[in-house]
Amino acid sequence: MAAIEWQIATAKAIKPETAKTKSFTLALPNFTAHRAGQHYDLRLTAADGYQAQRSYSIASAPEQMGEIELTVDRLEDGEVSTYLHDVLVPGDKVEMRGPIGGYFVWEAAQGGPLFLVGGGSGVVPLMSMLRHRFAARSDAVTRLLASWRTADDIIYRSELDAANGNGCEVFHTLTRSQPAGWKGFSRRVDAEILNQVAAPLGKDAKVFVCGPTPFVESVAAILSDTGIPAPQIKTERFGPSGN
Hints:
Layout: E1 7-18, E2 21-27, E3 39-45, E4 51-57, E5 67-73, H1 79-86, E6 93-100, E7 114-119, H2 123-135, E8 142-148, H3 157-162, E9 168-174, H4 191-198, E10 206-212, H5 213-225, E11 233-238
Parallel strand pairs: 7-8, 7-10, 8-9, 10-11
Antiparallel strand pairs: 1-2, 1-6, 2-5, 3-4, 3-6
């Protein structure tokens, strides 16, 4: 397989999602349509030659031609994420390489049922799948369960609210605090929540779980115990730092 070449992307738009999360639209001169769930490497090079490189999941649908969207949490000790949040402005250039990955991917042609489970920013590659589903006019029955600390941490909130309907349902759980009138779940994702949300999809569901390692391992184990075959449960995890 030929090596994926680095290219110079241009920041086209920057959109705040939450107090610590932003989405970056980046135009690529050598655009290749990705598969929902893939990622890009992003590299920064300082004047003295020092380089910092991180991998970020793609949030946009493959149908969004010529550009991709990355959604990035700002980490206080993150060399790349702090630059993206605090320094980068539209028109600036960054080095990128991708799309990368072939395991944690979903294409509309695969059909459903589809069960997506995300913890925090682990929802990003799942959002690419959801956006691809709509862009491809797929009728795959889909359920997304997203876990957040508070309501203020919900990424893509208005878009996720609008996604309900036409065979798609979105569920949230807030693990730390809930606003008055909250109608979603109010605790960490457990067997009861997973059984309630996943049951209507049956044992043939294609499952994608993304988030911090402990979250992913717990969710995957519970779903496996419910009888969903292990090969149907695909996982992607990230540590507490590195962005």
